[in-house]
From TrEMBL:
The lineage of its organism: Bacteria, Pseudomonadati, Pseudomonadota, Betaproteobacteria, Burkholderiales. It comes from Caballeronia concitans. It holds the Pfam family ABC_tran. GO terms for molecular function: ATP binding; ATP hydrolysis activity. PANTHER family: D,D-DIPEPTIDE TRANSPORT ATP-BINDING PROTEIN DDPD-RELATED, OLIGOPEPTIDE TRANSPORT ATP-BINDING PROTEIN APPD. InterPro entries: AAA+_ATPase, ABC_Ni/Peptide_Import, ABC_transporter-like_ATP-bd, ABC_transporter-like_CS, Oligopep_ABC_C, P-loop_NTPase. The keyword Nucleus does not apply. Keywords: ATP-binding, Cell inner membrane, Cell membrane, Membrane, Nucleotide-binding, Transport. This is Oligopeptide/dipeptide ABC transporter ATPase.
Length: 331
């Protein structure tokens, strides 16, 4: 049995204008010790997929389907039961640590509170473990830093504190929502290496939400590409970079700068993501897709297996798209 199994997850928000379907039938599985990258543009439904599982949707949001953690459905679970799991067995790192950390509390209080609640440790025991975890995420002078407030730390250090807080209870799954977006490239590399090391040491499964395929290449074993609230492609990371079989995935890869190609312009994807309050008929990507046919605008493709490649939702032949991408990229 997978550690986490999501089946037909749907997330809908009620607004004054219309109901917005942010996530539409997402399914995936996560094994113990595995890293899954969820990739897509802003508004593709990546973050809402995770927030729905953790019961953190906005008040006007509703989730349906299944999110089975060790066989228990997180969706619709009573708040008291979910609170025993959330922050303990399931943890999350948010994109902006400055807005996630409480500016009025010291790092010590924000960390020890978690251990007192979930592990029933005394304040002294909790502080000792908190310092140990700060040292594990390579914060220098941890015994001194723990008494400081968030504004006294750099952006990279605040993100390390967030990682340390998320790992205090040694969770089974760590959800990381764009954990390196606000950091410069040097600190970003350090944080990614830290996540790799911590996963090796603690055996934690990771779900990484990102728009950066470079981050996915360095950390993830499996990838799920989302667009317009749907899964476009899902496969091993190595397969995705060598043999992308969906036009949207190919578009994302072509927009990446490459060290092995000099000159030329980056190939962007024309157009804008769909308005999910009034989604287009058929495949959500068809209005921006150079390979779209009349069928693409009429009927949304099902997510189906492509040989041993993985899963994808597209009406166009997979082999032709893979071959063309490899020829144009000189893979």
């Amino acid at each position: 049995m997978p550690l986490l199994e999501v089946n037909g997850l749907q997330v809908e928000f009620k607004t004054h204008d219309a109901a917005v379907r942010a996530v539409n039938g997402v399914s995936f599985a996560l094994e113990e010790g595995e890293t899954l990258g969820i990739v897509g543009e802003s508004g593709s439904g990546k973050s809402q997929t995770v927030l729905a599982m953790l019961g953190l949707l906005a008040s006007n949001g509703r989730a349906s389907g299944q999110a089975l953690y060790r066989g228990e459905n997180l969706l619709g679970m009573p708040a008291k039961a979910l609170n025993r799991i959330r922050g303990n067995r399931l943890s999350i790192i948010f994109q902006d640590p400055m807005s996630s950390l409480n500016p009025y509390l010291t790092i010590e209080r924000q960390m020890t509170e978690v251990l007192e609640l979930h592990k029933n440790l005394t304040r002294r025991e909790a502080k000792k473990r908190a310092i140990s975890m700060l040292e594990a995420v390579r914060i220098p002078e941890a015994a001194h830093r723990i008494g400081q407030y968030p504004h006294e730390l750099s952006g990279g250090m605040r993100q390390r504190v967030m990682i340390a807080m998320a790992l205090l209870c040694e969770p089974d799954i760590l959800f990381a929502d764009e954990p390196t977006t606000a950091l410069d490239v040097t600190v970003q590399a350090q944080v990614l290496q830290l996540l790799r090391d911590l996963q090796r040491d603690f055996g934690t499964s990771i779900v990484l939400i990102t728009h950066d395929l470079g981050v996915v290449a360095g950390l993830c074993e499996k990838v799920m590409v989302m667009y317009g609230g749907r899964v476009m492609e899902q496969c091993d990371a190595s397969t995705l970079f060598a043999k992308p079989s969906h036009p949207y995935t190919i578009g994302l890869l072509r927009a990446l700068p490459r060290l092995d190609q000099e000159g030329g312009e980056l190939a962007g994807i024309p157009g804008n993501p769909p308005n999910m309050a009034h989604p287009p008929a058929g495949c959500p990507f068809h209005e921006r897709c150079a390979d779209a046919t009349a069928e693409c605008g009429e009927r949304a493709p099902a997510l189906e297996a492509v040989g041993t490649h993985g899963l994808r939702a597209c009406h166009r032949p997979a082999d032709a798209l893979i071959t063309r991408y490899q020829e144009q990229s000189h893979v």
